[in-house]
Amino acid sequence: MARSSLLWSLLWSYRNYLLIFLTPVLFLPLPLVIPTSEAKCGYVIILMALYWCTECMPLAVTALLPVILFPMMGIMESGAVCVQYLKDSNMLFIGGLLVAIAVEHWNLHKRIALRVLLVVGVRPALLMSGFMGVTAFLSMWISNTATTAMMLPIAQAVLAQLCATEARQDERELRGDGADNNAFELDIKLPKEELLKTKQDHVKSQKDYMCDDEERDADLPLERKRKERELKYQLLTKGMSLSVCYSASIGGTATLTGTTPNLILKGQMDEIFPSNGGVINFASWFGFAFPNMIFMLILSWLWLQFMYMGFNMKKSFGCGRKNEGDREAYAVMKEEYRKLGNISFAEGAVLTLFVLLVVMWFTREPGFMPGWATVLFNKNGQFVTDGTVAIFMSLLFFIIPSRPFWYSSAEEEDVEAGDKGKKKHNVPAPLLRWQVVHERMPWNIILLLGGGFALASGSEVSGLSRWLGESLAPLQSIPPFGISLLLCLLVGTFTECSSNTATTTLFLPILASMATAIKLHPLYIMLPCTICASLAFMLPVATPPNAIAFSYGNLKVMDMVKAGFVLNMIGILTINLAINTWGDAMFQLSTFPQWANITQGTKP
């Protein structure tokens, strides 16, 4: 028995090496027995799918396999494969990320978040809605991982302050030590002594009122109050943590650059259907996905409110006067905002460039009227794409200085021994430096995008997509809304166990082929499935925001499963509602487009 246990332990330790070497050997009979281009391409896809799902190799390294295997198997020439790794969608991704890095570098996202939260207030339901709204908005433009990592500590600090203040209030009331503390006012800045006391109280409250089971008050009513308070804030903390990580994933679906699957859809559409006329761009995606995001966010807030706080309108929404706990929690957020100081020239410049970029994206080719790209370049807006705009605006961050030139001063410094009297000009640095970009840019995602485009191209050229589409033709007997719903459930389940990038990369070429075979508008199934790939709510390992929320120690896996299962169903239903209502009107999904008959692999 001991030897058997040791053997299993050894195999598990070396599982990655076993998967890397055994998987190609086990599936090798497929291209050997059926020596067709379709079978060879299928072999590559199966191999990459298993590597991606098990992560036995880094995802980005797996994405490079087509560069080796497609030329070796005679599917595509090496040059044709390599060019897939830097397409227009990759440039859009790089440009969008450069803007997001600039926003994070100058802490503009934190200023926006705290400003909105100060307006919303600190009552539990309003606080949760405020955190969800701010998190969703920020994740539309910057990484959902960075957004979650920034918002969760703020939420935890505010809740801890509310808990500590409520504990002091209960103790005063039950011991007859009455008067309210009038030192905290919403419009008065706290002195440093009070701020230090607030921080000390925050640490003390964690030990005395939430975590310490040994020091028990002799007063039974006070003990009962303490237990009730612990349970209340334990639930509130769970709900707030889940609301932040879930809204980060939901918010990323609203913009084309919000999350990687959205860009994969655009890239796959342009790769598989080159004559689609730019049906997916920033403006059209936002017009469809933003209302869906708002609807999903409201329903998610209602569900989390029901699970963790109930629907007591008076307590949750703050009917009545503000108490001391509200003032102290508000003071915590106000002090965090005060630390940011006045808005700097660099923050103003970044905000201006960011707003200008969004305006140029929206007006480039809005669809209902000629955009500036068509008017200026007279090429139907296809010569200048969203990627062109993103790269142009991101280059300005390396040109515009981080402070005005007239603030620069020439001052005398000892640069080296014997250099007295020399003037060293204090030249301002640009808004972004390459070192900052190099540290924060997720270069692996660019390879992942390229690997997905290479797979799509190989599937078309080899004929595998056409074969898959013909095999799935019997699905034509199922109503379109049923097909969309079933595929969304399949993708939503698959993405819980796999990267959303890998999920969309694997599924979208197959879905495109199926749609062409059954004469269904490709976007009718590709668009909802792409959004569903981002709705991984049930497991901590499903997506980085979930893992960050789980790492704070307040959540159990079952908490996430119970809340996430309902949210997955809400997401799937809202997306299918959207695709059958305003999505149909926007993209004419009821008719099969002529451009869907002309694919990248079609021979003249």
Automatic annotation (TrEMBL):
Locations listed in the record: Membrane
One of the record's GO molecular function terms: C4-dicarboxylate transmembrane transporter activity
Transmembrane segments: 14-34, 41-70, 90-108, 120-142, 235-259, 279-304, 343-363, 383-400, 441-458, 478-511, 523-543, 563-582
Membrane topology, record value: Multi-pass membrane protein
Cellular compartments per GO CC: membrane
KW Transport (keyword) present: yes
Entry keywords, A to Z: Ion transport, Membrane, Sodium, Sodium transport, Transmembrane, Transmembrane helix, Transport
Pfam family, one: Na_sulph_symp
Protein family according to the UniProt entry: Belongs to the SLC13A/DASS transporter (TC 2.A.47) family. NADC subfamily.
Protein name, as recorded: Solute carrier family 13 member 2
Annotated source species: Umbra pygmaea (Eastern mudminnow)
